[in-house]
Each structure stands twice: as C-alpha cells, then as structure tokens.
Amino acid sequence: MEIDPRLGLPNESGVYKEIAKGEQKITVSTVARRYGKITTLVSGFDKNFDIKGTAKSLKEQLACGGTVKDNVIELQGNHKKQVKPLLIKLGFPQDSISD
Questions:
Q1: What is the pLDDT of residues 8-64, one digit of tens each?
Q2: Virtual CA dihedral for 60, 99, 72, 75, nearest 10 degrees?
Q3: Count of domains for the chain
C-alpha cells in the first residue's frame, strides 16, 4: 500500500472519498412540480464529488427515477423521510444532513 507523501495517508484505501463525504453540507427538500407531482431534491454537494454514483445508489434503493441537474439530485416522488437514513448508510455523517 502506497502512502501519500503530502498527507501521510494511504492512497488506495478510499480515505479521500470518506473525507469528501464528511465535508458535504446536504439539504433534503421537496418541491411540487407540474400537475402536482412531488419531487425530492438532495442538494449541497461540491463540484468535485461523485454525485452521479450517489444518485444511482439512491434511485436503486428507493426504486424510483431521478436525475442530476446543477449538482442537485432530483428524485421522483416524496422520499424526504427515506433519504436521510440512506445517506447515513452510504457513509455521510448525520450532522451534515439537514431536512
């Protein structure tokens, strides 16, 4: 295992991904779209974060459709109560997620 000379942390163990997850300030909200459809918005991700992978995981676990637009995950339906536990399960700190 290689050690990064700048930080002294292992390169291959995914430490950088865990640090990036801890720095996010995520907000979960809902908005009514056309024809009264509810959409759940998950926002607050940095531009350098792998938001598409997180969106894919959320869509699979919630069995819903969705997309990523302007660093915001849009999920079809009202999933506000289910998203926070799933994000915690994915490794995001509980105190960085607000409703």
A1: 666 655 555 666 666 678 899 999 998 999 999 999 888 777 889 999 999 999 999
A2: 40
A3: 1
